[in-house]
Each structure stands twice: as C-alpha cells, then as structure tokens.
Amino acid sequence: MRRFGRTLAAAALTATLVAGTAGWADADSVTPVTGPPPGTAAWLADPLPGRPLPDPATASASEVARFFAGLDDTARGELLRRHPLVVGNLDGAPLTLRYEANRLAITATGEARYASLARPGRQILAFDPRGRGQVAEVFGDLEHAAHVAVVVPGSDSDATGHDTARRPATGPAGMARALRTATDGSGTAVVAWTGYTTPVGVGLDAAGGRLAQAGAVRLARFTAGLDAVGAPDPALFCHSYGSVVCGLAARHTDAADIVVFGSPGMRADNAAALGTGARVWAARGPSDWIADIPNVELAGLGHGADPTSAAFGARRVPAADVEGHTGYFAPGTRSLAAFAAIATGDVR
Predict the structure, then answer these.
(1) What is the pLDDT of residue 161?
(2) What is the pLDDT of residue 300?
(3) Which of 39, 73, 113, 337 has the most beta carbons within 10 angstroms of its beta carbon?
C-alpha cells in the first residue's frame, strides 16, 4: 500500500508538471551558467609585473582576499579598469572595488535592460551578462554590517527582472528592500542574490535538481566570499525553488540561519539531513499554491519532504496572514516581522 501511495504521488507530480495544473506551466529547459566569470582568459594572460593573478576557476575566496590585500590602490585600480567583469565577480575581492567594477561592466554592455543597475547609489556585488543575466545587489553597508541576510529567489529571476516594477516587496530586490527596511537601525545589510540560473516558468526544470545543484555551488562560493572579506555569518532567506538551492548548499556554507518559504522541498528528508549547524526555519502561507505540489522525490522529479511539516524538524515561521506565493515580505505581515528578527539575531 505504501508503494502504491508513492506511485500515485509521483503520477500526480508528473501530471501537475506536464499538464500545467495548479498554476504550474511548462517551460523549455535552460542551460545553467557555470564556471569562472567572462573575461577570465584575458585576465590570466595579463598579470601584474612580477605577480601572477589568482585563477577565478581554482583560487579560493580567501586566496583572492589575500591577493588584493597585498596590492596598493594603483594596482587595484589598474585591474579594475582592465578587467571589470572579472574583478566584479571575484568572490573575496574588496567590496567597494567590486561595486565600481560592476558599474563599469554594466555600462560597457550598452544594453538598456541593464541600465538601471548602473545608476548612482546602487551597490552591485556581482554581474554576469551571460544567458539571462545574473546579479547580486547589496542594500545597506555590507562592509561594516553587524548582520547579513542573503535573499535567494526562485524561478524566473534574472538580471533583467531583478528589480522590475512588480508588486512591492516581491522579486529579488523587492524582497531585499523590504527586509532591509524591517531591520532598519540594526546594522543589517541585505543582499539580493540572483546569482544562479533559475528555471523559466515552473515546469520540468523546476521539478528537477539540475539547476539547483549548479546554483548551490555558486551560493557556497558566494558565502565563502562574504566570509573572506570579514562579513558576519549570513542568514539565508530562500524562496520557492531557491529553497532547493539552499538545501543543497547548506552543508557547504557557514550560514547562521536558513529560512525557507513557499518551498517545494529541500532535497532532504529532514533538517538534520541538511548537514548544517545553521538553524533551519520554514514558512508557508494558507493560500500558497506550492501546497498543491506533492512532496516526493522520485525518478529525479520533486524535491522531497515538506519543510513545514512537523516531521521535518524546522522551526516554524508564522505566516497565517501571507497572501499567495510571493507575499511573505509584504509590510505588516507576521512573516516579515519574524524574518527581521531572525536576520538581526533577535530570536533564540
């Protein structure tokens, strides 16, 4: 009977994905952007006098940090001007140098869809124009922050839609701004990290783990870069498919907290199986359609146990007043208040 039940669940999952029921829609498969940043070959072929440059494909974030610590301002500026795409995406490089490098790299694309990212005052910590584009943006003073939060978004997130005119407090930048506002005065910096190739729509890519596995590698390296520049251990806020990424990256990060919301699963049977010392939190609103997705993992489809179930063992975040799949950061919600308390370390 148990096997029959699992078969029915798998059949329901397949029907949901392929037929596009319960709000899910088919989408074409996408190829994840992986590996070192564009321009790496030119970077390696252009060393400073008497000093080889760190290989973005193999150097650790701490090695990158030590390299830049040994340079004077003139040498840093020269690398910035000659190789902005590499410097801007090099985890472990000085924060202010990355901000300026990415401003130059974004402007150099000449593409109108990215123009707003180069406006004065924006702190773009990563920018990769390959594919649909990837971006990470900082809200607050990351260099001197007492607390750091990283928002990891789900499907349909990319550099173009990172900060579009959506409903307030949705989308990567919108969620990050809402959390930053809710923690105002606490010395918290929030990063909107659209640093991986997300699924398009919610079809077979969203049901599989291929893009999440590639994203987990990038997220782990990104958090190592935060550590290399002296930032506090972050709290990860992982929405929808982003929670799959966080689940796979959990054991490879130094996150203090991992918060998942609107999650289809984390590819783990329970919180202990994530292999992390971080506190694990979960939220799901009463009208979130993600509840209609079977929590199975079979034949490569599905992401496993429901993180909000008692058996999973995550701490629950109140979400009774959350509307839909994207309302978790709406001002005035109990979920946003709880997220702010977690980000600032005000809960035990």
Answers:
(1) 87
(2) 79
(3) 39
Residue 166 is predicted with a pLDDT of 63
More confident residue, 85 or 1: 85
Q: For residues 20 and 12, give the distance between their C-alpha atoms in angstroms, rounded to a whole number.
A: 11
Q: For 236-297, what is the HEC assignment?
A: EEEECHHHHHHHHHHHHCCCCEEEEECCCCCCCCCHHHHCCCCEEEEECCCCCHHHHCCCCC
Q: What is the CA radius of gyration of the chain?
A: 20
Neighbours of 121 (CB within 10 A): 4
Residue 342: the pLDDT is 98
CA distance 183 to 339: 9
User: How many Å apart are CA 304 and CA 297, to the nearest integer?
Assistant: 5
- Token pair, residue 311, equals 């058996």
Residue 15 has pLDDT above 60, yes or no: no
Residue type, 291: A
State how far the Cα of 339 lies from the Cα of 343, in Å rounded to an integer. 6
